[in-house]
Design brief:
The complex is a heterodimer of chains A (about 500) and B (about 180).
Chain A (H helix, E strand, L loop, with lengths): L15 H5 L20 H13 L4 H27 L14 H12 L2 H11 L9 H22 L25 H34 L3 H11 L6 H34 L11 H27 L8 H31 L3 H12 L3 H13 L7 H4 L2 H28 L14 H24 L5 H6 L26
Helix pairs in contact in A: 3-16, 4-6, 4-10, 4-15, 5-6, 5-9, 6-7, 6-10, 6-16, 7-8, 7-9, 9-10, 10-11, 10-15, 11-12, 12-13, 12-15, 13-15
Chain B lengths: L2 E8 L2 H13 L5 E4 L7 H5 L6 H27 L16 H23 L23 E6 L7 H10 L4 E6 L1
Antiparallel strand pairs in B: 1-3, 1-4, 2-3
Helix pairs in contact in B: 3-4
The chains are: A mainly alpha (about 500), B alpha+beta (about 180).
Chain lengths: ~500, ~180
């Protein structure tokens, strides 16, 4: 068995050879450990709770201040919109759906990574997910909040918003349950609710940890209330684990259904460019793609700012970039297949919509989308790129931009030239469109900043379960431990 | 002052695991283990029966789906019948998405609140919180608590058993 390395230089965690093939092995399973730096249970607790207990670094204040200003801008742009009506946006006659819907689909897509990581990877027993699931779930919830705000303000008269729900009203009218827009109301709001429940259940044991470590009365009471009196009882863990497993099992079809239903908003209509059966899987792949990119963007910042390089390791980035490469290529395949079907169907309207998309007045947006979404992730075929932090950061930003443009291309290019050429019109946003989109980033980053300030951003209890000494068959004395595979040392 | 019971501290997962097997085999029933994370196999070591929670979740999920379908039927057929696109009033295929989503919502609520109900949580005032040592149950230490209401409980003999199991500390907790 290779000797355990006790003194570790933090710079090692960003060194590919060390991070991927550390010279130590899990003595029970004989595999490379997921958490680097030979941690103990207590060091995990300290490393994760530390950031939420200490003063925030300078960068946090910069981000938080900027986010608050953008949040103010969001409030102003919503107020102005409500006061004046949707005429303040750049919508025109053929293009009745503009940035608000683009932003909605953009945010709800980002909101898919969290549940994918916490539910689907949990069912597949991908233990590496434990370091990133809390963070990704938080991101999901905040992204869904941003997403929900756009259809809410897009209805125009938001004081009549209750009409989207099946509640009695003075007109005696009820919503139309055959409309995908109504399915969307249910799908996204239930997705948001279930994500919050899932996130909170995962937080309970960690809130108990924060409570037990709290030095002030206020923190004790604050964390204590939400920890619900959790005392780590194994009789509780038993029900808890069942609840968690089943939440994962029901969230998995939920997350796949939500973006399918979002795609129905388009696919169920009769419009060329929207009316396509490929939309549900294509939207789901795009959602996972953009969500993982956003997780990478935020993780690069968070692990550096809070010294969590040994928990959010290069192995995590390596795995996530493989998923980005896979889903990016699926999205690229969908783009190609849409074109193929437009030609193969022999439908002149369908063909026109797609040729217009790539070579018409919005060609700039289409090729931006192709460059960012299909071309840029191809660097992830190379391990050097998958484990090189600056590359990861840049590509993840590209993917975020590209996925916003994907929704813009789908929405606007299909609408701006309809069946009657005299109706054709070019759509451009106004400053209020831009303001509300930037403002939604304010909401997102304000929530993210508050999350890392007050809550453990890594699932402490779950990370402890992947440490070797969490296994009851782990014994400190070497005679019980199986030898590490000798071949693996000579990589 | 009446006793709540005994609290024994262990330093390793395997320590608490083997101790649980011994306490179980000694015939105790009103006792518990406390760990900072779910320890694999500890349910068997404690001799716990399977959780009934899945049945609660199943019933909740089916209830949610049924209610959603019923609501959509009632709205579309009884309360506000309008012909859309020449479809029948009860065009159930279009009602599947909402039926599924509401079923998931109810199942998730059933999972969370069912879990809390089975665990009798929230409960912020448990006697074990009096122990300073117990604060590490959410950090890096493992505990077994045997309550005084257990028929086999005896202040000295039970403490002796826990020490024999390898506990690094055994303390009495007041009720």
């Amino acid at each position: 068995m290779a000797t355990l390395k006790n003194t570790i230089n933090p710079a090692d965690f960003d060194d590919v050879d060390y991070a991927r093939y550390p010279d130590q092995f899990d003595p029970v399973e004989g595999r490379h450990p997921l958490i680097l730096g030979n941690p103990s249970f207590q060091s995990v607790t300290n490393d994760v709770c530390g950031p939420a207990e200490k003063p925030m670094p300078f960068g946090w204040w910069v981000l938080f201040g900027t986010a608050l200003m953008l949040l103010g801008l969001f409030g102003i742009s919503i107020g102005y919109l409500v006061y004046n009506g949707t005429g303040v946006w750049g919508l025109n006659n053929p293009v009745g759906w503009g940035w608000a819907i683009v932003n909605f689909v953009f945010w709800v897509g980002i909101g898919h990574a969290g549940t994918l990581i916490s539910a689907i990877l949990f069912l597949f027993r991908q233990k590496w997910r434990t370091s990133i699931n809390r963070f990704a779930e938080a991101m999901t919830i905040f992204a869904v909040m941003c997403a929900l705000s756009f259809p809410t303000i897009h209805v125009g008269r938001i004081w009549l918003l209750q009409w989207v729900f099946p509640v009695p009203n003075q007109m005696g009218a009820w919503p139309n349950f055959r409309s995908p827009l109504l399915w969307d109301v249910f799908a996204v709001s239930i997705y948001g609710s279930v994500s919050i429940l899932f996130w909170y259940v995962g937080l309970i044991p960690d809130l108990a940890t924060m409570r037990d470590r709290a030095k002030t009365k206020l923190k004790q009471i604050g964390y204590g209330i939400f920890a619900l009196g959790w005392r780590g009882s194994n009789r509780h863990w038993q029900h808890y684990e069942v609840a968690y497993l089943i939440l994962a099992a029901i969230s998995t079809p939920l997350v796949l259904s939500v973006h399918s239903i979002v795609s129905f908003d388009f696919a169920v209509s009769q419009l060329p460019g929207w009316h396509t059966t490929i939309f549900p899987p294509y939207f789901v792949a795009g959602a996972i793609f953009s969500g993982f990119a956003m997780v990478v963007t935020l993780m690069v910042l968070a692990r550096k700012a809070f010294q969590l390089e040994h928990m959010m390791t290069l192995k995590h980035f390596d795995n996530m970039s493989k998923i980005i490469l896979l889903t990016g290529s699926m999205v690229g395949y969908a783009y190609a297949m849409e074109f193929f079907i437009a030609w193969y169907s022999g439908n002149p309207y369908e063909s026109f919509a797609f040729i217009n998309r790539a070579f018409g007045p919005y060609a700039w947006a289409y090729w931006t989308m192709i460059t960012c979404n299909v071309v840029s992730p191809q660097v992830f075929w190379f391990k050097k790129a998958r484990t090189h932090i600056p590359t990861l950061f840049v590509v993840s930003i590209f993917v975020n931009i590209g996925m916003w443009f994907e929704r813009f291309v789908i929405t606007v290019t299909s609408l701006h030239r309809d069946f009657l050429p005299s109706n054709w019109f070019y759509y451009s946003p106004t400053r209020w469109d831009v303001a509300s989109f930037l403002g939604s980033f304010g909401l997102f980053f304000t929530m993210m900043c508050l999350f890392v300030r007050y809550l453990p951003m890594i699932a402490i209890a779950e990370v402890k379960t992947v440490l070797p000494e969490a296994n009851p068959h782990h014994h400190a004395d070497a005679e019980h431990a199986p030898a590490a595979p000798s071949t693996a040392v000579a990589h | 002052m009446k006793d709540f019971g005994l609290l024994a501290e262990f330093t390793t997962t395997s320590g608490v695991y083997h101790a649980c097997e011994k306490v179980r085999d000694a015939g105790y029933t009103v006792w518990d283990a406390h760990t900072p994370f779910p320890v694999h196999g500890l349910d068997q070591a404690m001799g716990l029966k399977r959780s009934h929670l899945p049945w609660v979740i199943l019933v909740m999920g089916l209830t949610g789906s049924s209610l959603a379908m019923l609501l959509q039927w009632w709205v579309s057929v009884e309360a506000y019948p309008i012909i859309y696109a020449g479809k029948p009033y009860f065009s159930w295929q279009a009602f599947v998405p909402v039926t599924f989503e509401v079923g998931v919502l109810f199942a998730a609520l059933g999972a969370v609140f069912g879990m809390l109900h089975f665990n009798r949580l929230p409960r912020h005032n448990h006697p074990l919180f009096q122990s300073k040592r117990f604060e590490r149950a959410s950090d890096d230490r493992f505990f077994i608590s045997i309550e005084a209401t257990d028929p086999k409980y005896h202040p000295e003999q039970t403490a002796e058993l826990l020490r024999a199991c390898g506990a690094v500390a055994v303390e009495r907790v007041e009720a």
